[in-house]
From TrEMBL:
<dbReference type="GO" id="GO:0031146">
    <property type="term" value="P:SCF-dependent proteasomal ubiquitin-dependent protein catabolic process"/>
</dbReference>
<keyword id="KW-0833">Ubl conjugation pathway</keyword>
<dbReference type="InterPro" id="IPR036047">
    <property type="entry name" value="F-box-like_dom_sf"/>
</dbReference>
<keyword id="KW-0433">Leucine-rich repeat</keyword>
<dbReference type="InterPro" id="IPR001810">
    <property type="entry name" value="F-box_dom"/>
</dbReference>
<feature type="domain" description="F-box">
    <location>
        <begin position="9"/>
        <end position="46"/>
    </location>
</feature>
<dbReference type="InterPro" id="IPR006553">
    <property type="entry name" value="Leu-rich_rpt_Cys-con_subtyp"/>
</dbReference>
<dbReference type="GO" id="GO:0019005">
    <property type="term" value="C:SCF ubiquitin ligase complex"/>
</dbReference>
<dbReference type="InterPro" id="IPR032675">
    <property type="entry name" value="LRR_dom_sf"/>
</dbReference>
<dbReference type="Pfam" id="PF12937">
    <property type="entry name" value="F-box-like"/>
</dbReference>
<protein>
    <submittedName>
        <fullName>FXL22 protein</fullName>
    </submittedName>
</protein>
Length: 226
């Protein structure tokens, strides 16, 4: 029996075991398999492990998407989690390209995937409060939002959760160093049913300019002398 003789349900089941590249390559072989590749039922879950993957045409975004994960830890993107004032011009340009790619992708998700239920972003130094705000506004069914080491996330995201996260059940902001204890307490007060986790976030040193760090160091030395 040839694979194209299988019914639609069987073909969808087979496709579900393949990664995005394999699905795309198989879809190129005939019109019937291309139709299976384009079936929204195949794209309820998406995982990405590098910014480059977001620019490929080996996946579909649409209302069927329920679970999205963007997690990367490679050396190439670690610089994006560094304070801006510590980066040289080459690094800033490199990070700006990543930021445009990620923010553009998340804008597409917020506009085309209104039924999103869970979003996990880890190691994404490019994610901004505005990105999360748009997602919360346009994806009213979002139940789980997990952010880890997203250094540009601040209390503005926490405020957006209290205003637009009506369906949210789980919120993680682990190792988000620019989130404050006051912001976390506000979420606990206004959204008591949300399971909030913020490992190390409010206890980490937030981003600041060199002159502010110098002032903190001088103040610390004075206290020691006293």
């Amino acid at each position: 029996m040839h694979i194209t003789q299988l019914n639609r349900e069987c073909l969808l089941h087979l496709f579900s075991f393949l990664d995005k590249n394999s699905r795309k390559n198989l879809a190129k072989t005939c019109h019937k398999l291309l139709e299976v590749f384009q079936d929204p039922l195949l794209w309820s879950l998406l995982n990405f492990h590098s910014p480059v993957e977001l620019k490929k045409d080996n996946f579909l975004l649409g209302p069927a998407l329920k679970h999205l994960s963007i997690c990367w830890y490679s050396e190439r993107v670690k610089v994006c989690n560094t304070e801006d004032w510590m980066k040289n011009s080459f690094q800033k340009d490199f990070c700006k390209r990543h930021e445009n790619t990620v923010s553009g992708f998340l804008l597409d998700v917020s506009n085309r995937c209104p039924n999103l239920l869970s979003l996990t972003l880890s190691g994404c130094g490019h994610i901004t409060d505005d990105c999360i705000l748009q997602l919360l506004k346009n994806c009213p069914n979002l139940k789980s939002l997990k952010l880890e080491n997203c250094v540009r996330i601040t209390d503005h995201t926490l405020q957006a959760v209290t205003l637009h996260g009506a369906s949210l059940q789980t919120l993680h902001v682990d190792f988000c160093r620019n989130v404050t204890q006051a912001g976390l307490e506000r979420v606990r007060e206004k959204c008591p049913s949300v399971m909030l986790r913020a490992e190390r976030s409010a206890s980490m040193i937030p981003d600041s300019k060199p002159e502010k760090k110098l002032m903190l160091e001088k103040a610390s030395r004075k206290l020691v002398q006293l």
